[in-house]
Specification:
By secondary structure, the protein is α+β, with helices and mostly antiparallel strands. Helices cover about 15% and strands about 55% of the residues. About 35% of the residues are buried.
């Protein structure tokens, strides 16, 4: 089971890195008091300092960064609707350091809901929640997540 989980984590991380390297359009949104990603991670509030949105051609990758931590959400679409988190289509990863065994958490369940797209189609809002696990089988729970005024590339 551990080798299957390790393979899955490497596969997801590799897919995201490959997708990121093949990006077509990227926009960076400096997080202000209203813009950005905020979430409760195991009961502790977390908010980005920078958000980058990339269109790889097949996925939209939303990356929120705060110091050495990041939340990365990859979705097939940014239309209003609910997108279940799975291991291949819509994914999420949390990183909080450089150690592969303990610092990279892959989502195993959850969902992202795009609640609105502005009238010009340049920004969206949404909410999310998911549960992640790392290679050491430690979990983190992400609740009450919000995506506020995220730029669409």
């Amino acid at each position: 089971m551990k080798s299957k989980f390790t393979f899955l984590t490497f596969f997801l991380l590799g897919s995201l890195l490959f997708t990121e390297s093949c990006k077509k359009d990227t926009t960076e949104t400096p997080a202000t008091n209203t813009k950005g990603i905020s979430v409760s991670i195991d009961g502790t509030n977390w908010k980005t300092t920078t958000v980058t949105t990339t269109n790889s051609g097949t996925h939209f990758i939303i990356s929120g960064i705060k110091a050495n931590e990041s939340v990365i959400i990859s979705l097939v679409d940014l239309a209003v609707g609910t997108y279940p988190i799975d291991v291949s289509t819509n994914t999420a990863i949390f990183t909080n350091g450089n150690d592969f065994m303990t610092d990279i958490y892959s989502a195993i369940s959850g969902e992202v809901e795009i609640t609105s797209v502005n009238s010009t189609g340049t920004e969206f809002d949404g909410k999310f929640n998911f549960i992640t696990i790392n290679a050491s089988k430690e979990t983190k729970t992400f609740t009450s997540g919000t995506l506020t005024q995220i730029t669409i590339p």
